[in-house]
Design goal:
heterodimer, A: about 280 residues, alpha+beta, Pdz3 Domain, eight-stranded mixed sheet, four-stranded antiparallel sheet, 6 helices, B: about 170 residues, twelve-stranded antiparallel sheet, 2 helices, about 20% helix
C-alpha cells in the first residue's frame, strides 16, 4: 500500500507544531502570572492651580492715589559714600561719609533725606520718595573704577561681581519684608547645581502622597540663609501654589524668573508661617 | 550528524517561536510598571507591535511627574540575545536646556547578552555626535561628544575634557 504523506516529513511538521504550541503555552503562562495586561497612563496633575491669586490693587509702578507734597531736600545719593557694613540677622549698621564727615547709621536712620533700608555684603540700600537706591561699598567702587553706583527699583543694572563664580545678587532685609535681587533668580535658573550646593530639600510623604518639602540644610552665608528659612522647615506653598509634587515644585522653579514678589508658606514645628519677599 | 542537525532545527524553531509569540506589548507594560517604581513614566500616543519589534509613537517621558522629553518614535527591536532601542527626534523640555542638548535627532541604545554589563549608546543632533556606554556593573555612564557645534556651549560647564575631547560622566 502506497502512503499519501511521507511519514518522516509529517513527523517533522508535527514536531514543529508541538514546539510552537509549547512556546505559545509558555508565553501564555508567563503573561498570566508575571506580565501586566495594561499600561500606565500619566495623569496630568489638576491640582497645580494656585490656591489664590495675588491681585495688585495698587501696583508699585502706578502713582499713589493721594499725592503728598514732596519734601524738598537738597543733595543726592551721590553725596553719600559707603565706608563700612556690619550686617547680622537682626542688626544692620553702616558707616558712611557725608559732607566730609563720617557717620554711623542703623537701619531706619536717615541721611540727606535717604532712609537706610538694609544692606548686603557690599552695598547698602536707601529709600527716598518710594524709590530704592543702592550705594556700593567704597572698596568695590575702586575695583570697578566707577565713582558711584546707584540703582533704582526699576533699573535692571546689577552690581558687578568680583568673582564670576560667585552668586550675583543679594537678599536685603528691609524690616518687615526682604528684598531679593532678581539676578539671583537668573543665576539659579541657569545653575541648578548651585541650589543643591546651598540648600538641601527632601520630600515629606504622608500615606504615599507628598505633603511638602523639608529643608535638610541651609549653607551659611548663602542667599538661601538670608531668606530666613531654617533646617527642618517644611515648604507648604509658594505664591499660593501648593508644593505637593515634584512637578509643582519644578513649575515654580521654571517660572521663578517671571515673579515680582514671592510668598512662601512654611511649617516650622507646629506653627505655620508666611514669608514675604519683594523681588527687584 | 543527523542528531546535531535536529537539535539545530529545534533551536532555530524555538528561538523563532519565542520571538513570534512574545507578548511584546505586555512585556512593555511590565517594564513601564517597573520604571514607575523609579518614578519614571512613559506616556505614549499609540503602540505598534511587529514580529521582532515594538514601536512607541510619540511617547512623553516624565520623571517624578516632571515632563522631561518628548520623542517622535521609539523602536524596540529584539532578537533576545541582542536588543536595540532606537529613538527618533528627542526634544528635551525647555527648562533642561542648561543640562543636556535640547534636541537629539537620532539615538541608539544597544544591549547584548554577550557583554551583559555594557549598554552602548550613540546619538546625533545639531549639537554634534555622542557615543559612549553605560557600565551596569560599575554603575556609571560616560558619553563622548565629537563634531560639536555652538549649541553645546550652554552645557559645556557640565562636561569634562580628555584626550578624545569633551565627555560627560555620571554614576547611577
Amino acid at each position: 500500500m502506497k502512503h499519501l504523506f511521507k511519514s518522516n516529513l509529517f513527523k517533522i511538521f508535527f514536531s514543529i507544531l508541538i514546539l510552537l504550541a509549547l512556546v505559545k503555552l509558555l508565553w501564555f503562562v508567563v503573561e498570566m502570572v508575571w506580565l501586566s495586561p495594561v499600561g500606565i497612563g500619566h495623569d496630568d496633575e489638576v491640582g497645580n492651580k494656585s490656591l489664590y491669586y495675588r491681585v495688585k490693587l495698587t501696583p508699585n509702578e502706578a502713582p499713589p492715589p493721594m499725592k503728598k507734597q514732596p519734601i524738598k531736600i537738597a543733595g543726592s545719593i551721590k553725596d553719600i559714600t559707603l565706608l563700612g557694613i556690619y550686617n547680622s540677622e537682626d542688626t544692620t549698621v553702616i558707616t558712611v561719609e557725608y559732607k566730609r564727615k563720617t557717620k554711623v547709621l542703623a537701619r531706619g536712620d536717615e541721611i540727606n533725606g535717604f532712609l537706610l533700608e538694609g544692606a548686603g555684603s557690599n552695598f547698602a540700600t536707601f529709600s527716598k520718595d518710594s524709590k530704592t537706591y543702592r550705594v556700593v561699598l567704597l572698596k568695590s567702587k575702586k575695583s570697578t573704577g566707577s565713582n558711584s553706583s546707584i540703582k533704582s527699583t526699576s533699573s535692571t543694572q546689577s552690581v558687578p561681581a568680583k568673582d564670576s563664580s560667585k552668586v550675583k545678587g543679594e537678599v536685603t532685609d528691609a524690616g518687615d519684608h526682604k528684598i531679593i535681587d532678581k539676578s539671583l533668580f537668573d543665576h539659579y535658573a541657569k545653575n541648578m547645581d548651585d541650589i543643591y550646593k546651598n540648600i538641601g530639600i527632601s520630600e515629606v510623604k504622608e500615606n504615599g502622597k507628598i505633603k511638602g518639602f523639608r529643608i535638610t540644610f541651609v549653607r551659611r552665608g548663602t542667599p538661601f540663609a538670608k531668606l530666613g528659612i531654617k533646617r527642618g522647615d517644611m515648604i507648604k506653598s509658594i505664591n499660593g501654589q501648593e508644593i505637593n509634587s515634584y512637578n509643582a515644585a519644578f513649575e515654580v522653579y521654571k517660572n521663578i524668573q517671571k515673579v515680582e514678589n514671592l510668598t512662601m508658606v512654611i511649617k516650622r514645628g507646629k506653627e505655620e508661617m508666611e514669608l514675604e519677599y519683594e523681588v527687584n | 550528524m543527523q542528531m546535531v542537525k535536529n537539535i539545530f532545527i529545534i533551536f532555530i524553531v524555538f528561538w523563532f517561536a519565542l520571538l513570534l509569540f512574545m507578548p511584546k506589548q505586555e512585556l512593555y507594560f511590565t517594564l513601564e510598571k517597573e520604571l514607575l517604581k523609579q518614578d519614571i513614566e512613559i506616556n505614549e500616543q499609540s503602540i505598534e507591535e511587529g514580529i521582532f519589534s515594538l514601536n512607541l509613537i510619540k511617547p512623553v517621558i516624565y520623571v517624578k511627574g516632571i515632563k522631561i522629553a518628548t520623542i517622535e518614535k521609539i523602536n524596540i527591536f529584539t532578537l533576545v540575545f541582542q536588543t536595540n532601542i532606537n529613538l527618533k527626534s528627542l526634544i528635551l523640555d525647555d527648562s533642561l536646556k542648561s543640562f543636556a542638548p535640547q534636541k537629539i535627532d537620532v539615538a541608539n541604545i544597544s544591549y547584548s547578552l554577550f557583554s551583559p554589563f555594557k549598554v552602548i549608546i550613540d546619538g546625533k543632533g545639531s549639537f554634534g555626535v555622542i557615543d559612549g556606554h553605560a557600565n551596569l556593573d560599575e554603575r556609571n555612564l560616560r558619553l563622548h561628544f565629537s563634531e560639536t557645534t555652538k549649541e553645546l556651549d550652554s552645557i559645556k560647564s557640565n562636561l569634562k575634557k580628555d584626550e578624545k575631547g569633551l565627555y560627560y560622566e555620571t554614576s547611577f
